[in-house]
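explain this chain.
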Amino acid sequence: MSLLDILPQVTGTLTPNRPMDTLSWLRTGGPAEVLFQPAHMADLAGFMKALPAEISVLPIGVCSNMIIRDGGIKGVVVRLGRGFNGFEVMANGNIRAGASLLGAHAARKAADAGVDLTFLRTIPGSIGGAIKMNAGCYGDYLADVFVSATAVTRAGDIVTLKSDDMGFSYRHSDMADDMMITQCVLRGPAEQPDVLHQRMTDQLTKRAESQPVKDRSCGSTFRNPAGFSSTGRADDVHDLKAWKVIDDAGLRGEKLGGAQMSPMHPNFMVNTGDATSADLEDLGELVRRKVKEHSGIDLEWEIMRVGENMLPEGDG
């Protein structure tokens, strides 16, 4: 009996053994045992409520901050689609956005309405993912504009989350991995639309000057190692940039298989065309090890790694 045979009935779509490389930002990874694309909120909540507790669930967006391992993902992968990509300017000037709406689209639509969410313009990925990882750039973070979110729990309950529930920190929230944001309310400063659109144009230009925007990359591979002390003394604590410690270790342009640390920005890991997920993850671990040897700094992954490693040939 396959997993599909024991799953609850849905209005949306259940697809067994769905290849994930075509859904992955990096274009790598094995299949999902079952991919669920719910039609609407009630479809998602009803499915989760009826789903046997022993079956694992992984919500994904556009996988712009994720390596899906080559052995694929066991259990159910949930991906929200068109039923969850709405955008609305509320009467009080706040923005209501669906979780599957791309952050770049939200930024442009908000700018049209004179609301400043411009920092989202250069961050790849969906609103739901941006909330999960407290995405940010240019000194602004999702936590700064977050008002509330609607989510579905693993038990199928529909809940409202306030800022105090999120546990936001640098590139992180305390959300459970199997909880699914479906929509959110954001509040940004008011500004003239033409000013906001010009700001986004300038940001895109600035980004293209220093980042490999045309390559297959998930952006920053490692978190900045803030608060590192090279001597252990309290008065020696200083902030560092991940790209700098990678560069100092001689790893700019480092390659492993089809994966490379970008020559343009050494904290950006790129698929040069034929990388496997193992190439990408192994290169990341190689960089972590060499940086540790060079400077004593433990780099922390910013990119999520999910799923199973491919078994060596002959293993079962």
